[in-house]
């Protein structure tokens, strides 16, 4: 999941060595790995991720050679981290995202994973997830993934409604989803499904059908995102030309409330603004690492990394990416070293999204002053505040950015 | 064809018989400055290499807008039949807001060149100034400019001019300021046709001030035309309106750079420097005499410039208030018409209520403040001065809607204008309709030529200060032109409309309107604000009210969603920057009660539907 627009930052050195601050306290932080697979069979109209269709690329960036290139960055990462004085840490979680990771042969994915595990090792019971398109898996390929060390698969279901899928340019047949979920279960993978709500033309009833359909597969985990119209996408152009109605935040809010209710009724609880799990153990540990501010290295073109308050991102184009690694250079395009104030801002922005909440005693006096107002506006749960944590109410989840801003002032 | 004068007549020793004082009456863009430049070049007072386009328009804003705000006077030599003449060209301001200044410039002349674009014909303001010149008994030389243009229709417009001033179309001179065609003939004709100035050289000195400019290095430079007697350096002079006396530090003529002289005699035009620092001490229209041998009677026609249009000026950033105050103080030194006093707005903070001669004056002042002093300003909707008589006979003058009295009102009087509109005949219906909706009363209508009419209306000033000119332009496809002058006042059924956000009155949006239009204003403003104010976490009612009576209402629904759905590893930097930006943006919000209103909403709500830019252009 790497957005296409890279931030502006400082230049990153070719040897990939990190500023000194990255190593401070690293032994106490978990370490995760993200692997970006920049391929899709078709580019979806709403998607602004850094992804390419199979025929667009050649050389080390081609689909066939990609696993080898990614393994090269794994090696580079291990070296750069040790050169930066970071201790060797076992992988706490691994996540393959895209694009469509399952467009690569299962063997390619397990090969990259094996190379990473060989470098760093894997914590016991570590979560290893791949995203998948329901159309691009078979029972066999899922079996192969499981055998290669994957523990979890996240299916991009998006909607159960054909006309909604069409607006999204999703090519899968909705009927493939239950089959794919069943196969994943059979081979021993835990299952998550992704849903998108608020697509132009999606009725309230359409959304309810999608939610109920997703629940009928009894997944361990569901992510539900409101559709975001990103600049530069086909969908944005269609809306601008008036071919497709614009999205409506009120519609999004109502659909969120409905989904939250139905998920709860089905026994799933929210643990992040857009994520629900059957048990706390079913929460996506990898994504929690992002929100908790742990360290991770992102492999692949356009992938973002974070180690100890240093964020960097790789060059976007797979060919440029492959060329850098061929020369033994860091594929980073830019980076930023966050000061204490900025890290605190990020912590508030990210942890406030979680049901585990922000510990009140970690907040600054000014931030604490804002809490009474947030309670009055019914944005945070008063009982939880008395117990020492700031946790969003349902209304607060929908106005999460406003809560963050209030705590920053 | 005349040669360039070989010897120029010397100031202070010039026989009035060889002096010709003239000005050019022209509409903006009809090429006055270009023609003046050509004259300077032809007569040799400005060398080719020093020539910048429109030499006489000194301020950047003047050059950019192509208009003259402050007039200048230039002494130029010209030889006809072996005699060297002294021509004084007095460049007049070209806009409706500066009618008084124009009238004083005209009073300094014996003749005027009526300069009209051969592709456009005469415009309303030019016509108004022409009438002014004719009332002053000036000799008029009609000239069509830009005859080199492919779209020029010299025959048609020559007939129009001849018709207006009562001559023959053949007598209209054809020139092109751009190519220089006809300019020498024009100079010759000025010498031949214009009367020489007449005055008594032995009488006590009387000189009329037709312009007064503040110069950082020299203080106030006063431009005068000597009527009687003479002025000499080192003499003590006296302003007849105030009886204030000053030492004459320097006296001279512009040609066009200032050149000190031994004095100025009857009929001569030049400048005076006394070391005063405020143009208010040297007012346009006032008479200058000498302290030791003072004249008994001042020249006629002097009066104080009276502001007609008022607007609140506020710095966008409240900490800029002292900068704005200093800037206004400075500007005032150079602009006798500018008046201001501090005011406070609950919504906009500290600012000033500033009085202007008209809308262009407002725009130019605002632009100069912003540009020359690096300020960002909000100006409230312009309004006029109302005279409110309460039932207890107390009279209140209201220049700001928020000062409108709340007590029992016996009568409200509003200022009126006499407006002249020139347009092609096909637009008469549209113009009458527009004027009617603006509560105008038709005063008369005349044909200038077969297809152009002059329409006269009496209108409330308040009805034309906002967007009237823009609408007139669009209704006449750009062909209509407007001129107005103050014309007394009238009793009107006026009310104050207040705008409230969540029950809190926002003073910046209050307006005084005619009762019949109050509802429309309320609907318009509440609707505009609904679009401009972002949704808050609570519902925000927007109401328009007259007193306690609500006349319009809109609602901004509470925002229900304000959160980014996806926030993963690659989104964090972007998302953080967005939040930092929003945090910055919050600083630019004005709080009205609990409601956060962006600055932009104030600016957009206070501007007219379409941007009021380019009002100065025809």
UniProtKB/TrEMBL annotation, chain A:
Compartments reported by the entry: Cytoplasm
One Pfam family, short name please?
A: Radical_SAM
Tell me if Chaperone is a UniProt keyword of this record: yes
Which GO terms fall under biological process for this protein? porphyrin-containing compound biosynthetic process
Chief subcellular location equals cytoplasm
Residue ranges of every copy of the Radical SAM core domain listed in the record = 25-269
Instruction: List the record's Gene Ontology CC terms alphabetically.
Output: cytoplasm
What keyword terms does UniProt attach to this protein? 4Fe-4S, Chaperone, Cytoplasm, Heme, Iron, Iron-sulfur, Metal-binding, S-adenosyl-L-methionine
User: Which Gene Ontology MF annotations are present?
Assistant: 4 iron, 4 sulfur cluster binding; coproporphyrinogen oxidase activity; metal ion binding
| CDD domains cross-referenced by the UniProt entry | Radical_SAM
- SUPFAM superfamilies in the record: Radical SAM enzymes (SSF102114)
Its function, per the record, reads:
Probably acts as a heme chaperone, transferring heme to an unknown acceptor. Binds one molecule of heme per monomer, possibly covalently. Binds 1 [4Fe-4S] cluster. The cluster is coordinated with 3 cysteines and an exchangeable S-adenosyl-L-methionine.
Query: Which family does the similarity line name?
Result: Belongs to the anaerobic coproporphyrinogen-III oxidase family. HemW subfamily.
* Name assigned to this protein: Heme chaperone HemW
Native species:
Arthrobacter psychrochitiniphilus
């Amino acid at each position: 999941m790497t957005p296409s627009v890279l931030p502006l930052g400082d230049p990153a050195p070719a040897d990939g060595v990190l500023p000194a601050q990255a190593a401070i306290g690293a032994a106490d932080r978990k370490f995760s790995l993200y692997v970006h697979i920049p391929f899709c069979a078709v580019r979806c109209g709403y998607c602004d991720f850094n992804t390419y269709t199979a025929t667009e690329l050649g050389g080390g960036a081609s689909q066939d050679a990609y696993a080898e290139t990614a393994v090269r960055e794994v090696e580079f990462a291990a070296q750069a981290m040790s050169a930066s004085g970071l201790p060797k840490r076992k992988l706490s979680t691994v996540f393959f995202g895209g694009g469509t990771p399952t467009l690569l042969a299962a063997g390619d994915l397990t090969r990259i994973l094996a190379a990473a595990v060989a470098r760093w090792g894997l914590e016991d019971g570590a979560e290893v997830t791949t995203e998948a398109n329901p159309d691009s898996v078979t029972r066999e390929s899922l079996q192969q993934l499981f055998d290669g060390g994957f523990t979890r698969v996240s299916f991009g279901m998006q909607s159960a409604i054909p006309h909604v899928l069409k607006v999204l340019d999703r090519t899968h047949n909705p009927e493939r989803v239950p089959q794919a979920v069943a196969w994943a279960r059979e081979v021993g993978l835990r299952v998550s499904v992704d849903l998108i709500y608020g697509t132009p033309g999606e009725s309230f009833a359409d959304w309810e059908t999608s939610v109920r359909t997703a629940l009928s597969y009894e997944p361990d985990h569901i992510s539900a995102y409101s559709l975001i119209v990103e600049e530069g996408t086909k969908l944005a152009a269609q809306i601008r030309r008036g071919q497709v109605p614009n999205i409506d935040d009120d519609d999004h809010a109502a659909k969120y409330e409905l989904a939250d209710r139905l998920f709860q009724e089905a026994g799933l609880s929210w643990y992040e603004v857009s994520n629900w799990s059957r048990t706390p153990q079913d929460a996506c540990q990898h994504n929690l690492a992002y929100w908790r501010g742990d360290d991770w290295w992102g492999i692949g073109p356009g992938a973002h990394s974070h180690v100890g308050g240093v964020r960097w991102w790789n060059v976007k184009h797979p060919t440029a990416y492959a060329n850098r690694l061929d020369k033994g250079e860091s594929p980073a395009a830019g980076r930023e070293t966050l000061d204490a104030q900025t890290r605190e801002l990020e912590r508030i922005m990210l942890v406030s999204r979680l049901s585990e909440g922000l510990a009140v005693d970690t907040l600054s006096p000014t931030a604490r002053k804002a809490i009474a107002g947030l309670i009055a506006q019914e944005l945070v749960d008063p009982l939880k505040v008395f117990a020492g944590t700031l946790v969003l109410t349902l209304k607060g989840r929908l106005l999460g950015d406003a809560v963050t801003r209030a705590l920053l002032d | 064809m005349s040669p360039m004068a070989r010897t120029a007549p010397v100031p202070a020793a010039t026989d009035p018989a060889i002096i010709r004082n003239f000005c050019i009456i022209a509409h903006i863009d009809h090429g006055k400055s270009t023609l003046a430049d050509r004259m300077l070049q032809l007569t040799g007072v400005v060398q080719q290499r020093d020539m910048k386009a429109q030499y006489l328009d000194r301020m950047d804003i003047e050059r950019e807008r192509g208009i003259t705000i402050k007039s200048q006077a230039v002494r130029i030599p010209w030889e006809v039949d072996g005699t060297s003449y002294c021509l004084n060209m007095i460049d007049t301001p070209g806009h409706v807001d500066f009618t008084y200044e124009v009238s004083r410039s005209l009073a300094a002349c014996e003749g005027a060149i009526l300069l009209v674009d051969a592709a456009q014909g005469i415009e309303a303001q030019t016509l108004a100034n022409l009438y002014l010149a004719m009332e002053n008994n000036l000799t008029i030389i009609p000239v069509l400019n830009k005859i080199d243009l492919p779209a020029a229709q010299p025959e048609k417009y020559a007939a129009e001019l001849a018709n207006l001033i009562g001559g023959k179309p053949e007598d209209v001179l054809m020139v092109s300021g751009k190519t220089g065609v006809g300019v020498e003939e024009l100079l010759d004709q000025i010498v031949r046709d214009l009367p020489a100035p007449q005055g008594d050289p032995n009488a006590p000195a009387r000189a009329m001030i037709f312009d007064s400019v503040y110069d950082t290095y020299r203080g106030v430079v006063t431009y005068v035309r000597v009527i009687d007697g003479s002025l000499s350096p080192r003499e003590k002079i006296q302003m007849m309106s105030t009886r204030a006396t000053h030492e004459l530090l320097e006296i001279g003529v512009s040609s066009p750079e200032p050149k000190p002289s031994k004095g100025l005699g009857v009929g001569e035009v030049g400048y005076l420097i006394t070391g005063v620092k405020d143009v208010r001490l040297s007012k346009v229209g006032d008479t200058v005499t000498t302290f030791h041998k003072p004249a008994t009677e001042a020249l006629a026609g002097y009066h104080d410039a009276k502001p007609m249009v008022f607007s609140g000026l506020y710095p966008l950033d409240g900490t800029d208030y002292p900068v704005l105050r200093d800037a206004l103080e400075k500007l005032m030194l150079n602009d006798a018409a500018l008046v201001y006093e501090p005011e406070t707005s609950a919504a906009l903070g500290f600012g000033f209520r500033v009085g202007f001669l008209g809308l262009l004056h407002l725009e130019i002042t605002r632009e100069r403040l912003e540009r020359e002093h690096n300020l960002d300003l909000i100006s409230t909707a312009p309004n006029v001065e109302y005279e409110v008589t309460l039932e207890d006979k107390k009279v209140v003058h209201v220049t700001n809607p928020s000062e409108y009295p709340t007590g029992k009102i016996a009568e409200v009087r509003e200022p009126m204008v006499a407006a002249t509109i020139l347009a092609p005949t096909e637009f008469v219906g549209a113009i009458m309709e527009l004027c009617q909706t603006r509560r105008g009363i038709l005063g008369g209508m005349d044909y200038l030529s077969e297809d152009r009419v002059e329409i006269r209306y009496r209108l409330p000033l308040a009805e034309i200060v906002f967007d009237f000119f823009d609408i007139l332009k669009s209704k006449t496809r750009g062909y209509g032109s407007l001129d107005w002058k103050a014309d007394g006042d009238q009793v009107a059924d006026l009310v104050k409309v207040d705008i409230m956000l969540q029950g809190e009155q926002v003073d910046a949006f209050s307006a005084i309107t005619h009762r019949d239009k109050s509802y429309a204003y309320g609907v318009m403003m509440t609707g505009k604000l609904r679009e401009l104010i972002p949704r808050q976490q609570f519902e925000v009612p927007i109401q328009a009210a007259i007193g306690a009576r609500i006349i319009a209402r809109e609602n901004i629904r509470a925002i229900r969603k304000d959160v980014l759905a996806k926030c993963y590893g690659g989104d964090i930097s972007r998302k953080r920057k967005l939040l930092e930006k929003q945090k910055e943006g919050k600083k630019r919000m004005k709080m009205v009660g609990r409601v956060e209103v962006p600055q932009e909403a104030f600016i957009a709500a206070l501007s007219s539907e379409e941007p009021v830019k380019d009002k100065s252009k025809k």
